[in-house]
């Protein structure tokens, strides 16, 4: 099959929804006899003769007669690249609600497109979320029927605000240029937005400031969806919402529940309430919700019953469920959702068509406003086992996700226990992986962990022999079992090598060490008549002044020192300085993943990455 073209997370999500429709028993595989049905579910029609050829190719190389999700995605990627699939590509762009965009990608034959429905949904969401923000009054409210959204993204202000709505305090508001904008200050805002989006786990590798300035529709919508989704799913995890323990099923442990992704928890939450309503469960937020009946019953279950102090009851009018027309029934259902303050993201047609992305957003917003769950009492539950994510873990997770690893990492130790993500990180740092030695999902239930353990053993071997990492005392079992200390030790070396590789590429391959970075930092500070540092543990870094001085040395005049507290700093003032420093680093173009607290507490590892990223930015000005 032809060389595969890259697949976006959104495309993969749509294919996963289609696969789930056919994989009704959740086995992780489907029969090759169901291939025609699978392509139809994915709205990607293919001629019958071509499907027969594919089945023949598969059966000649494998006698299993089944197809995994990974094999399906590889098949779709190959078809998008092949000449025989010209009509297949045309069909993709003719799907309902898809608009073609002028211009083609660098991969010949791939025409960009975007969803009109998504544009309307995102405009309505942003209008409501930022309606009282005076900094956005120059572009809001936007007209959802026009291309206002794409032009409104051009100065970076709205995007910065949306990032802060999804993950609070990611961007220091003092660093956003808001008045008398010029081409230069707009560029700074877009740098700030893109580097901050990357820091919260958005994959922005193929998106640049020019793309946002020019309002390239598919890229704007793709980035916005990532930002919005991160915010919508942020609280759908046990450490932030212990009431989710109510979703435990008989025979399950707390650990089983903690392994579920936010999307899986959201689906289980919906089924928890549907079961209470005496309804059948749903397997997805696409085909299974098209008739609006599941939504009707879900709304009825989560609507406030008036049993909480100060919260009036809201009675859901269920009469609309008897509407015979699907669109009219969907409209009647959404009228009830509006009474709960949750008519966002979907129009009646989006429900009837089963748009997976927008329906996921609709349900996530409903959960956030009306979870209708209570923390179980008098149960034998070890609440201490529910640990929140540390700053270090969050930094590593966001860094991995920003690189576009697949699958996305939601729970650091659970989602890398088969080492597939680690192998992708090795490739990012130019360590070759022999994928023929890697066991790939779906894993059989019998021997599943053994396959994962074999992968982890290979990952450790690659680290020692190819990457030359220091992995003393680390074995594959430690990665597989989620040993925190040892897993983080490997992840740190991966992140460090990735950062140093960028510096070496910019410096014509010259070897970079910690001393190299410190030497460059001090020479740059000296040229600007600033105080040097002794190293990454220098106590003065707790004030963030060395970082701010270095930023000002790289881009003179960028730091507004009147905003910086210099002497006799309290802990709060140190944190404010650090927030300003991290955002300013991103604003001048440094892709910094560290958090303000890392500077304030002088965490040497994260401090190294901050100075290394600034050094990379400094190289670019030479």
Low-confidence stretches: 83-95, 102-110
Number of helices: 28
| Quaternary structure of the protein | single chain
Amount of beta strand: under 5%
Relative helix content: 40-55%
Radius of gyration: 26 Å
The end-to-end span amounts to 44 Å
Shape: globular
Give the overall pLDDT as a whole number.
89
Structural class: mainly alpha
Identify the strand order in the major beta sheet. 1-2
DSSP strand tally: 4
Report the biggest beta sheet as strand number plus sense, adding barrel if it closes: 2 strands, antiparallel
What does it look like?
- The chain has helices at 9-22, 35-41, 48-61, 69-81, 86-93, 116-129, 148-152, 157-166, 183-199, 209-213, 217-233, 254-258, 262-276, 293-302, 326-339, 348-353, 356-369, 391-402, 412-415, 420-428, 448-465, 476-481, 484-506, 514-527, 545-554, 571-587, 596-600, 604-620, and strands spanning 29-31, 66-68, 98-104, 111-115.
- With 622 residues, the chain is an all-alpha fold.
- The strands form 2 sheets. A two-stranded antiparallel ribbon has the order 1-2. Strands 3-4 form a two-stranded antiparallel ribbon.
- α13 (262-276) crosses α14 and α25 packs parallel to α26.
- The chain is globular and about 75 Å long.
List the helices and strands and how they pair.
Blueprint: H1 9-22, E1 29-31, H2 35-41, H3 48-61, E2 66-68, H4 69-81, H5 86-93, E3 98-104, E4 111-115, H6 116-129, H7 148-152, H8 157-166, H9 183-199, H10 209-213, H11 217-233, H12 254-258, H13 262-276, H14 293-302, H15 326-339, H16 348-353, H17 356-369, H18 391-402, H19 412-415, H20 420-428, H21 448-465, H22 476-481, H23 484-506, H24 514-527, H25 545-554, H26 571-587, H27 596-600, H28 604-620
Antiparallel strand pairs: 1-2, 3-4
